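ingest -> validate -> predict -> emit
validate: passed (alphabet ok, no gaps, 105 aa)
predict: started
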Amino acid sequence: MSKPKHPDMSAAMDPQGPVQALVVRQYPEWKCEQCGEIYPDNEVLKGANPFDEADIITGCPNCKSIDSFVRVCDEPECQFEATCGWPSADGYRQTCSRHRIADIR
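emit:
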C-alpha cells in the first residue's frame, strides 16, 4: 500500500478498511474574551511588555483589549475554548471538553 499524498488522509488509509480522517487546525487560533472575535496566531497583535522586557503582551485587532485571549479548540469549526491538552496518536491536541470526550469514546 502506498503512502497517501495528503498528510491529513493518513488516518483514512487503514488496511482494515477506511476510518475517519483526523483533521485539526494547523495553527492555533485565539478568541478574544472581550469582543468574541477569533484570530489565527499570526494576526494577534503582539509587543514587548513595557513593565517586563522578558514578557510579551497580546492585543485584539478588533477591540484593542490587552491579554484577553483564550485558545480555541483545535477541531475545525469549533469555537469553544481549548480546556484539555492531551497526547493522541497523531500528536499533542488542545481541545474543548466536548471533543476530548468524543475522542475517548
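The mean pLDDT is 79.
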